[in-house]
Amino acid sequence: MITWRLPLVALMCLSITVTGCMQGGKGQGSDRIFSYSTASDIAGAAEKTKLRFWSTGRHDANYIKEVIHRYNQENADHIEVEMTVMADDFSQSLDLSFASELSPDIFTPIDLAEMTRKGYVEPLNEYLTPEIRNRFGKQAFIEGYNVFDPFIYSLPNSGSTLRLIYNVDLFKRAGITSPPKSLDELVEAASRITEIGKTDGVYGFALPYKIPASALGRSAVPIAEISGISGDGYDFSTGNYDFTGFIPIISAFRTMMENGSTLPGSESLDIDPLRAQFADGKIGMYLSYSSEPSIYKFQFPAKIQWGAALPPSIDGTYKGVINQGVGATRWLSISSQSKHKEEAWKFLRYMYSDEVLIGYQEAGLGILSVDAIAAKARKPDIEGITSFFPGDYDGIWPASPQGFKPKGREWEDEFVKYIMIGGDLERLVEDLNERYNAALDQERAAGRVNIQAIPSFDPLHPQDVSWQSD
Question: In whole angstroms, what is the distance from residue 368 CA to residue 160 CA?
């Protein structure tokens, strides 16, 4: 069952359905909401406890659809789950659903800190037996990610690693022998690829700048982290925000925009159209997550030979690890408004079973973040996936302050604006530092943020410290 986008108010009270099947790939608009009802016996549906599950995951939708279909047919608790993939406006739709007291029973939390602050999420503590805690291990419970003392609000599925993805054929044509390890090499490689390919509509670099947080989250953030700089501007060693370290990164992106090495139209480009262009051989390089190998096998079958490597650092030396923190520590949560919390937990217990999690990794949809479970999975039969397996430069940073925004535009929006049109980058960074630290001071004064400085913080070993969150 496919439910097309409706105005948000109508979404809560009206369902218009057409018969069809969801196809991952081209034609999947970013402004649609896909809903799956997989009950096998509609006549008996009234006798079942119905649970609504809202997911933000598009890349794994087909696998989860199959898992839910199996659960609906086989569970002995008379539970029926309907899954809706929210392709856009998830936060706004969730806010409205809670305001209308029509929230889903289970959902994938985007900003868990904010959602716990709003009271949307049910703590899982009473459901987590010692056996379950031991199965996941201490690495699965991290303050500021899925734990907000003393409550646990979600459990992990898979962490996302980030890599530079490049067209091997274009590298050979341009005479580039290895992936760039520094920003200077990145800019040079993008220029050389554009020089040999521009007449054929080929450009050296691209990012989905349409959504600044998406563009920089998959590019500037891992470049900063592998260079030893926090990916969101928060300096753990001082306990304040400092975006100065981003200057060379954003400058490099601006240079590639100015010299014509960036794919024209990137300012309005979303990630799926970018992937389609890359699969067609029109883009030399971009940066993205470990979901890409499965996308180039199933969603946009690649017509090229491609590879993946660690993101370049600022100067070619690695001084930090790339953070897997958010994805590695949470996946599903139960709504505080759900009238069927016990049934929702039974469904979560199934979703977190070895069968489902191992199948998730073996399908190439993600890399399990709990080592003991990941070790049971076979290597996915997907080209390029091994390049995304966690290595020495992947890890988990402590959580930075969350759940608040500065006055004015956020840092991703400001940096993308500069990349597009230029300006005074140093002054821009000064303004960001002032506004973010003013907002942080206000949150600390109100007692909503208690994270303190870690003078001995080491970005190469970010969890090997005693960091404080009261």
Answer: 9
H helix or E strand, kind and range, residue 55: strand 49-55
> In Å, what is the CA distance from 233 to each residue of 50, 99, 110, 131, 395?
43, 33, 19, 38, 18
The answer to whether the CB of 294 falls within 8 A of the CB of 365 is yes
Contact 19, 36 (CB under 8 A): no
Quote the tokens at residue 161: 């690693």
Beta strands (DSSP E) in 153-257 are 158-159, 162-167, 203-205, 234-235, 240-241
Q: How many CA atoms lie within 13 A of 320 on its CB side?
A: 28
CB 82 within 8 A of CB 17: no
Please provide the distance, in angstroms rounded to a whole number, between the alpha carbons at the two ends of the chain: 46
Closest by CA to 412, choosing from 243, 273, 277, is: 243
List for the chain the helix, strand, coil content (%; round to 5): 40, 15, 45
CA–CA gap between residue 347 and residue 330 (Å, rounded): 16
Summarised one tens digit per residue, pLDDT across range 232-286 is 999 999 999 999 999 999 999 999 999 999 999 999 999 999 999 999 999 999 9
Q: How far is the C-alpha of 12 from the C-alpha of 1, rounded, in Å?
A: 17
* Residues 220, 250 contacting (CB under 8 angstroms): yes
Query: Rg of the chain's alpha carbons, rounded to an integer?
Result: 22
Identity of the amino acid at 46: A
Residues contacting residue 35 through CB under 8 Å, at least 6 positions apart: 1, 2, 3, 15, 17, 82, 83, 84, 85
Is the model's pTM score more than 0.90? no
Please give the torsion angle defined by the CA atoms of residues 230, 185, 283 and 56, in that order, rounded to the nearest 10 degrees. -10
